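Running this now, will post back.
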Amino acid sequence: MREIEDIDTGAVSVGVPSLSIERPAVYVVATPIGNLADIGQRAVAILGQVDYILCEDTRHSRPLLEHYGIATRTMALHEHNERQVAAGFVRRLQERAESCALISDAGTPLISDPGFVLVRSAVEAGLKIIGIPGPCALVAALSIAGLPTDRFVFEGFLPSAAGPRSARLERLAGEVRTMIFYEAPHRLMATVGSLCTAFGATRDAVVVRELSKRFETVYRAPLGQLEATLAADPNAARGEQVILVAGAPVLDESQAEIDRMLEVVFKHTDRKTAIRIVSTLTGVGRNALYQRLLELERGGD
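Update: finished.
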């Protein structure tokens, strides 16, 4: 999630607590995904008291820091320089007994954002890593989607090219948990089309755009209908997007028995013959059996 919007939050009137900052240490601090008011007092206090703040984009983070009167020095750590500079920052923290805060453009660092290399290097160096929880787009979207939340899987950004994107989705066709994806606005329609092809038009899905911002919108519908709804809305492909898709139906006992038959027969003959035999024994159509056998070969549940 990239964009921060300064919705009218009013004056900052709550007292910011004074904290004892540990040194050396790395504080991983979640920041708002849209509304600047969505930040905790502890996060504000830490950002104001560490020795420096590592930002994905220092220019992008400036409005948030200025809004809360935070004058701490900022330095850049992003996907293009992290591997080159992470070790240097870790050495600096050790040699000078300093503390730093890591923030991304919006949301929780490392979640489809930079920071893993730094945190991993700090862990290997024996530094203390302290998480300051807060906004996370995937959790916020899941909480309002109306899809099952007891089990879910986060897939981040899908490949931008159609072929690799379709291949990734084919591997997820049998996934029974709710699936969560991030997507850029200019790729929304292509991705929803790929989801519809991979999972079928009747699979329930949700698209949430502009989370916590003035024009937050939630689209809920089966994938086929959702694709048409988004295509008809000129605002649908504006702003950052979170896409959630219901998992595949859990197989009942009869389906599990068919799967066992397919696997056993296929061990002793070719695919075409196995499908013909199982179709004759069960009455299930050959096309459906063919698709299911492919899923089983890919390891689908």
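The radius of gyration is 24 Å. More later if anyone needs it.
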